[in-house]
Fold this sequence. Notes:
298 residues, alpha+beta, Nuclear Transport Factor 2, Chain: A, Nucleoside Triphosphate Pyrophosphohydrolase, six-stranded mixed β-sheet, 13 strands, 23% helix
Amino acid sequence: MSRPHDVLDVTDPFDTVRRLYRALNAGDLDDIARLYDNEASAEQVFDGIFCVESRDAIVGCYRELTARWRGRVEVEMVGGIQTGWGWAQADWIELGADGTPRRAGHSHFLIDEGRIRRHRRVVTATGPEAIAKRRPQRERASRRYPSRPVAGVGSVIVCPLEGDPRAPLEPGARAGVVLIRRLHEPLAGHWTLPGGTLEVGETLEAGAAREALEETGLNVDVGPVVDVFDRILLDDEGKVRYHFVLVDYLCRPIGGALRAGSDAAEIVVADPDALGPYRLAAKATDIIRRALRMYENP
């Protein structure tokens, strides 16, 4: 495992936290070890583990967890704490192997030069009903005639073209992409990629996962960014009616059930080589092609 004097290609505390949870979901113990200082201490890293005083002991906790747990952690927010520079908080939901929420809470991290020196975890809710109640009702920015651009997120969900969309895409199998026909403006009645506006206090990745679940019924693993672009739509008088800055992610299903929900009138797993009938915007078609290239050549 790498030692603290090794070069670490991340120094921003928020990026360190995001990388930690990506490594945990991937079961990458080597990368987890890189992110902790050799003298790091942690409290309540996981249930039943109250205090450990070294990086090796912390990594041992992760090793024990990944050996017996097949779930994942969905990070809702990563923010700074006013107690001092270097402190960050992550709000998270722990999901079981079937995507069912098990626990929710937050973790505090003291991070110096990209490495975690202190880590404390607090569970605030247990079980799906309690977790649903704790989620704040965040205020969304006005989308029509906004005073400033509105941030949005989208998902290119790649899955088997035939059969269960949640199944792994086997070598040689044809890939499909999930499309929805929008129920509401903007683009009501048009086929598009799943997505929507980001909520206050929500990370980009969490927003992409939430919108995918709300619109397609699928729990997704949010992967790399496919593209960042803007969309400005004018009204008949030339005024800006919509102005979005959009971040689209490559995603894969890991649970849930395919269904049309919230802003979706219809849903389909489409053949990327036969998108003509859906009359997608040229940008959406381009993003799908980029995402498939990224999927095939990670």
